[in-house]
Specification:
The structure is a single chain. This protein has 401 residues and is an alpha/beta fold. It has a domain at 11-140 and 189-280 and 301-333: Rossmann fold. It contains 15 helices and 13 strands. The chain has helices at 17-32, 51-64, 85-99, 114-128, 185-195, 198-209, 228-231, 238-256, 275-278, 283-297, 303-315, 338-347, 356-359, 362-372, 393-396; strands at 7-8, 11-12, 42-46, 67-72, 104-108, 131-136, 142-144, 151-153, 163-169, 174-180, 213-223, 263-268, 329-330. Strands 5-4-3-6-11-12-13 form a seven-stranded parallel β-sheet, sandwiched between helices. It has a two-stranded antiparallel sheet with strand order 1-2. It has a two-stranded antiparallel sheet with strand order 7-8. A hairpin with a 2-residue loop joins strand 1 (7-8) and strand 2 (11-12). Helix 5 (185-195) packs across helix 8 (238-256) and helix 10 packs across helix 12. The relative contact order is 0.17. The chain binds nicotinamide-adenine-dinucleotide. Residues 47-53, 71-74, 86, 110-112, 137-140, 222-224, 269, 271-272, 274-277 line the site of nicotinamide-adenine-dinucleotide (NAD). Nicotinamide-adenine-dinucleotide (NAD) binds next to helix 2, strand 4, strand 11 and helix 9.
């Protein structure tokens, strides 16, 4: 199959296996070029195939030599369609780990279900005995409640009043005005049900009941706060409510993990291009501006640089950097530097379609977006026929150590 990118709105419906492989390998090389991380040992990553979860799995494996079990929900290729990028990433990740004799197994299916929790528990019991780090990095548009069967859909809307602002159609290079009506109470509740902390608590409680959490276990979920400019749609919007709920879950979990001397933490991460962030109005334009300024300052980071810092500066060091007043780990510190935010706030009102390329790194945004799907990767011949059917070692039983 000749695989080219096919973009519709903010999604790409194809992915390139070789491109994804190289993009994962680049992340591995980055981690390998840095000093090793002292821990963790046995890790469960929920949402392990793309974005921040994949970076977490890579840092744990190639930075610390940890054994990882990755859970994700991805699509395999068939005769007509390529696999999803997370499928190819996970195939690449496992093959790179296995090449070095490092343990890595994956489970593909709905992490919100009880069945998936049971499968993960069984695999931990059988192979690892216990885990000392659980990363919770799901980003999903819907969740089926495992107890009631009810399906909740999340929305990305303001709360209380309509939001009027700018956004970008990145691939057309057009800056547009958007008007988003406020969410109903039900939409807020549904978004909290999908992206809040209930499922995270279910995972941790389930693993604790089965004695699969090691003494001193850490569990980390990811959040975003961002500047004033994005507050109406993010921090004070439906997704922000879900993230408040996630924080409440962290506090509850930390109490419940006390007998194990464990801790549930939230890391506030930088805005980066992922499939999840591309779907949020306003955010892609903000990211394009942020990239320009941070690249100029030499402080730009992607998922892998962020998560490496999370591990080395916060989670596995004898002198962790301070948390903020609310107890959050802040690896968005460079994004939130006052001079960066002052420049963004000054440029924001001036941005139009005509000056977009000059004022924002829209090319960098699009490049990163293509890279998520294995496109625009150096050294790949996109005219060449490739086999879209790629195996994940541990799922299809080839070469598993
Ligand atoms: P992403 O879309 O790249 O990754 C989502 C992951 O969740 C994938 O591995 C996917 O397979 C998995 N997933 C989705 N639904 C699933 C299901 N039902 N069962 C099993 N797996 C499922 O997202 P991301 O941007 O890396 O986001 C991860 C976390 O980081 C989220 O909590 C997000 O809010 C947070 N975060 C993201 C940003 C950003 O700019 N992207 C910034 C700060 C925090």
């Amino acid at each position: 199959m000749i695989i080219q990118s096919k973009i519709h709105g903010f999604i790409c419906t194809t992915a390139h296996p070789e491109g994804c492989f190289n993009a994962v390998e680049d992340q591995v090389k980055f981690v390998r070029s840095r000093k090793p991380v002292k821990g963790p040992v046995n890790v469960l990553v929920i949402g392990a195939s793309t974005g921040y979860g994949l970076a977490s799995r890579i840092v744990a494996t190639f930075g610390a030599g940890a054994k990882t079990i990755g859970v994700f929900f991805e699509r395999e290729a068939n005769d007509k369609r390529t696999a999803s990028p997370g499928w190819y990433n996970s195939a690449a990740f496992e093959s790179l780990a296995h090449r070095e004799g490092l343990y890595a197994k994956s489970l593909n299916g709905d992490a919100f279900s009880t069945e998936m929790k049971e499968r993960a528990a069984e695999l931990i019991r059988q192979d690892l005995k216990q885990v000392d780090l659980v990363i919770y990095s799901l980003a999903s548009p819907r969740r089926k409640d495992p107890k009631t069967g009810q399906v909740y859909c999340s929305t990305l809307k303001p709360i209380g009043k309509p939001f009027e602002g700018k956004t970008v159609d990145a691939f057309r290079g057009e800056v547009k005005d958007v008007l988003i009506e406020p969410a109903t109470e039900e939409e807020v509740a549904n978004t909290v049900a999908v992206m809040g902390g209930e499922d995270w608590e279910m995972w941790i409680d389930f693993l604790a009941q089965q004695h699969l959490l090691a003494e001193g276990v850490k569990t980390v979920a990811y959040s975003y706060l961002g500047p004033e400019l994005t507050h109406a749609i993010y921090k004070h919007g439906t997704i922000g409510k879900a993230k408040e709920n996630l924080k409440a879950s962290a506090d509850k979990l930390t109490k419940r993990l006390m007998p194990l001397k464990g801790e549930a933490l939230i890391s506030v991460d930088k805005a980066v291009v992922t499939q999840a962030s591309a779907a949020i109005p306003v955010v892609p334009l903000y990211i394009a501006l942020l990239y320009k300024i941070m690249k100029e300052k030499g402080t730009h980071e992607g998922c892998i640089e962020q998560i490496y810092r999370l591990f080395i500066e916060h989670l596995y060091t004898s002198t962790p950097l301070e948390r903020d007043a609310d107890g959050f780990i802040r690896i968005d510190d460079r994004e939130m530097q006052p001079d960066v935010q002052a420049r963004i706030a000054a440029v924001w009102p001036q941005i139009t379609t005509e000056n977009l390329e000059q004022l924002a790194d829209i090319k960098g945004y699009c490049d990163d977006f293509y890279r998520l799907f294995g496109f625009n990767i150096e050294g790949i011949d996109y005219e060449r026929d490739v086999n879209p059917q790629v195996r994940i070692d541990s799922i299809q039983g080839v070469g598993t150590p």
